[in-house]
Design goal:
The complex is a heterodimer of chains A (about 725) and B (about 140).
Chain A (H helix, E strand, L loop, with lengths): L6 H67 L3 H23 L4 H31 L2 H85 L2 H8 L10 H35 L3 H16 L3 E8 L2 E8 L6 E2 L3 H9 L3 E3 L8 E4 L2 E4 L2 E9 L2 E10 L5 H131 L4 H33 L7 E4 H18 L4 E4 L6 E4 L1 H18 L6 E7 L5 E7 L6 H5 L22 H11 L3 E5 L7 E7 L9
Parallel strand pairs in A: 10-12
Antiparallel strand pairs in A: 1-2, 1-8, 2-3, 4-7, 5-6, 7-8, 9-11, 12-13, 13-15, 14-15
Chain B lengths: L1 H6 L9 E5 L3 H13 L3 E5 L2 H5 L8 E4 L8 H11 L4 E6 L9 H8 L3 E4 L4 H12 L4
Parallel strand pairs in B: 1-2, 1-3, 3-4, 4-5
Classes of the chains: A alpha+beta (about 725), B alpha/beta (about 140).
């Protein structure tokens, strides 16, 4: 039993037995306690009350006797009354005792005493009723005798009851003592049993646990063989306890491991064989030996596929001849490309020698070795033992390894062939190379010639390119000129627009004033005003026309200057004087700074004044409010002269600065244009200055930062007027 | 003024106050002469900014130039139209038809009631004033 129960079951049995012991123990203790309780109840409910009632009867009767004595000595009505009361009390006590239940022995004694007691009470009654007078010694003695007799009988009963009580007490004491002893014994017994059971349980559990631990330790060390031995229970192969299960698992694992190890070893042998050499025979025989050893096969052949034939390259236990693909077991395996298993004998050569006799192999297995979709070889194994699925799978794996080895061999042979081929080709190439070398040298000579030609061509090409560049430059120039022409045309169109506007304003004023003039004949003040407007606007119109004519003259190069030596300071003074009115109207003034030296210029004084007037007029127009226009004149060391006209006005944009002196391009021809003038002034200035051999330049730091116009005249040549 | 009224009474059917804005002093002066001779009450300024700054309706009708140095005529039209929707606006310009597009048409889109190209026949002006002064039907 010990070896058949699991550890948990053993523990359960041990604890179960302990529980049974505990229950029995509790039951015994309880029984004893119940007995004691019953005895105690008997004592308190039956025995003790009877005794007490009997004692009470005795006490009342003695009281009554004392009462009789007292009345005799002192026969007062009080004494008589007390005596009667005492008699009644004694009767009541007797009645109480009589009503109580008694046991048969007690009943017998009580029945004997009761008539005597009642008789005594009757005697007492009579004695008292007869009165004092009739009382004498004799009657008193008779009463006493009665009393003695009755009380003796009662005493009998009391004694009996006392005995009973004592017996009950003793019995209880006894039972208590017994219970105490019994409990002690039971506890001792239970303890012993517990201890015994615990020891047994521990003992039964410890041994298998110890072995489990030991097994685990051995397993940890990898010593599973010892572990299996430890786990096995001799003589009981079907044990279902932990050790049994463990042993079973170990044995299975050990077997599997052993098989696996063996197989790995064989795999390794096959692999080693497959990789050991580069000749088929060198691979084939060791591999076949290893496979046969693993499968415990007595017979084996390794066929190599050569076209439609299978040629044996290694054998074990028999001699083999070549077979055709499709014939025999090996042939079928090669044809169908899957393992073939046969349980019949194949032929006379498939026999195993056992001592002197031969036994035909019952199980023959043929597995094709396939690599890259090509059957390389077939392994055939014959055995007396059964060859199962495991053998097939093993053989397939081994076959794959062998296939790799055989493939290597094939590759090696192929490579050897290729190397030889390469060697041959190399020699050919060498020969060709030498021929090529000769050709190459020839080609090099030709190459030199071509290069020379090439260089000539290059030179020509560069020439053409240069011509081309020139052409494109010319084209670009032409295009630029065309653009300039287009721009000029646009400016002219714009100028016409501005001109129209400039002409329309004076015309409108004149037209309006004429109407007023004709319709307000009788209003001299209005007429006066109208005439003034007409006069001013007419002058403005003629100046515009004069400007236009100048522009036309400049454009056609027909402007004429009368040359003479002129003092530029005088010209400037006149110009500033002319512009005074305009400056005042604009709320500004003109500051003129003149040098100490004379500044002489060869030219037309009228035109020079026109130039200066235009520049100053411009400065007033575009200059800032309240900021004076500054005009300065300087004479250089070479007696050339320089006039500068500066203002702090709205300035000129850099983009505008470039085309400032181009005819028809006033800085601002936009919708916002608001200064009168046709944009001719600066073009006129430039043309006139250039006619005098001078130059004019404009500077401005940008919008809102003022502008400076500088005119440079060369020193007079002394040729006089021309 | 009194004389002008008598002469051109047929134009000034309804007394109308007119504000004229133009940067050209002589144009302004001639407009005053013209309008006064026809009996209109006039008020003028050559500063567009002053006109822009007006808070109370200065007149019944505004005659303004479009291109002025101190203010944009278009802005003036738009502001006046916004402030006094019932005020009539007449635009006259010299640059309106030659330079870069039709500005007079643009002025109408900004809110001008009528336009005139400078120079104009006085009769044309009075016709337009008459049309503008007619009560809206």
């Amino acid at each position: 039993m010990k070896s058949r129960l699991k550890i948990a079951e053993r523990m359960a049995v041990g604890f179960g037995l302990m529980m049974v012991v505990l229950v029995i123990f509790a039951w015994v203790i309880d029984r004893r306690a119940q007995k004691i309780e019953a005895a105690r109840r008997e004592l308190t409910t039956r025995i003790a009350p009877l005794r007490e009632a009997a004692d009470a009867v005795q006490l009342r009767f003695l009281n009554a006797a004392i009462g009789v004595r007292a009345w005799l000595v002192d026969p007062t009505p009080e004494a008589l009354l007390r005596l009667r009361q005492q008699v009644v009390e004694a009767r009541a006590a007797l009645l109480a005792l009589e009503l109580m239940q008694r046991e048969p022995d007690g009943e017998a004694v009580f029945q004997k005493a009761r008539p005597l007691l009642e008789a005594y009470l009757v005697e007492c009654q009579r004695f008292v009723e007869r009165g004092q007078a009739s009382a004498n010694e004799a009657s008193e003695q008779a009463l006493t005798a009665h009393r003695e007799e009755a009380l003796a009988a009662l005493n009998e009963f009391i004694k009996l009851q006392r005995n009973k009580r004592d017996h009950a007490l003793i019995a209880i004491q006894q039972a208590s003592n017994d219970a105490e002893q019994g409990t002690k014994a039971a506890v001792a017994l239970a303890l012993v049993l517990f201890l015994l059971l615990a020891v047994l349980t521990v003992h039964s559990v410890r041994e298998p646990a110890r072995r489990l631990v030991e097994v685990a330790r051995h397993m940890e060390r990898g010593d599973w063989r010892t572990a299996v031995e430890l786990a096995s229970v001799p003589g009981d192969r079907t044990a279902r306890d932990e050790l049994g299960i463990l042993r079973h698992a170990f044995v299975s694992a050990a077997t599997a491991l052993e098989r696996r190890e063996q197989r790995l070893k064989t795999d390794m042998l096959v692999a080693r064989a497959a990789g050991s050499g580069l000749s088929r025979e060198g691979i084939a025989q060791p591999a076949l030996d290893a496979i046969c050893a693993q499968l415990q096969a007595e017979l084996g052949v390794l066929f190599r596929a050569e076209g439609a034939q299978l040629v044996p390259v290694a054998t074990k236990g028999l001699t083999a001849t070549p077979v055709k693909v499709g014939e025999g077991l090996a042939g079928r395996a090669a044809l169908e490309r899957r393992p073939q298993l046969l349980t019949d004998s194949l032929g006379p050569e498939w026999v195993v020698r056992r001592g002197l006799q031969t036994v035909p192999a019952q199980n023959v297995l043929a597995v094709p070795i396939i690599s890259r979709d090509e059957v390389l070889a077939v392994v055939v194994i014959g055995s007396l033992a059964k060859l199962g699925a495991e053998a097939v799978s093993f053989l397939e794996v081994s076959a794959t390894q062998l296939a790799v080895g055989l493939q290597n061999v094939a590759s090696h042979e192929q490579i050897k062939k290729l190397v030889a081929e390469l060697g041959r080709q190399g020699e050919q190439i060498q020969a060709q190379n030498e021929a090529l070398q000769v050709q190459n040298e020839e080609l090099q000579v030709q190459g030199e010639e071509i290069r020379t030609q090439n260089e000539e061509l290059q030179a020509q090409s560069e020439e053409i390119k240069a011509q081309n560049d020139e052409l494109s430059l010319a084209t670009a120039r032409l295009r630029g000129q065309a653009e300039v022409l287009v721009e000029e045309d646009e400016r002219k169109t714009e100028f016409l627009g501005v001109l129209a506007h400039e002409l329309r304003n004076p015309l409108a004023a004149i037209s309006n004033s004429l109407f007023a003039l004709t319709h307000a004949r009788d209003n001299p003040a209005m007429r006066e005003r109208a005439e003034q407007v007409i006069g001013r606007q007419t002058r403005l119109l003629s100046r515009l026309i004069e400007d236009l004519l100048d522009v036309t003259r400049i454009n056609s190069g027909k402007i004429r200057i009368d040359r003479e030596v002129v003092d530029l300071a005088a010209v400037l003074r006149a110009a500033v004087e002319d512009c005074k009115g305009a400056a005042e109207r604009a709320g500004t003034r003109v500051e003129l700074q003149l040098p100490a030296d004379q500044a002489l210029v060869e030219g037309d004084p009228v035109r020079l004044q026109q130039v200066m007037g235009n520049l100053i007029d411009n400065a007033i127009k575009f200059g800032g409010d309240q900021q004076p226009v500054r005009v300065s004149l300087e004479v250089n060391d070479d007696r050339s002269t320089e006039v500068k006209v500066c203002d702090d006005g709205e300035g000129i944009e850099a983009s505008v600065l470039k085309r400032l002196f181009v005819p028809f391009s006033q800085a601002d021809t936009s919708v916002q244009r608001h200064r009168s003038g046709l944009g001719l002034g600066l073009a006129l200035v430039k043309a006139l200055v250039e006619l005098h051999g001078g130059t004019v330049k404009a500077f401005s730091a940008g919008l809102g930062r003022g502008a400076e116009f500088s005119v440079h005249f060369p020193s007079p040549t002394g040729r006089g007027s021309g | 003024l009194i004389a002008g009224k008598s002469i051109t009474a047929r134009y000034a059917v309804v007394s109308m106050r007119i504000l004229v804005v133009d940067d050209n002093a002589d144009v302004l002066e001639s407009m005053v002469l013209l309008l006064q001779s026809a009996g209109y009450e006039t008020q003028t300024t050559n500063d567009g900014r002053k006109a822009l700054a007006m808070n109370e309706q200065p007149a019944d009708l505004l005659i303004t130039d479009l291109f002025m140095p101190d203010a944009d005529g278009f802005e003036l039209i738009a502001k006046f139209r916004q402030r006094w929707p019932k005020m009539k606006i007449l635009v006259m310009s010299g640059g309106g038809t030659v330079v870069r597009g039709n500005y007079l048409a643009l002025a109408v889109r900004f809110g001008a009631d009528a336009t005139m190209s400078k120079p104009f026949e006085p009769a044309e002006l009075f016709r337009k004033l008459e049309t503008l002064s007619a009560p809206v039907s």
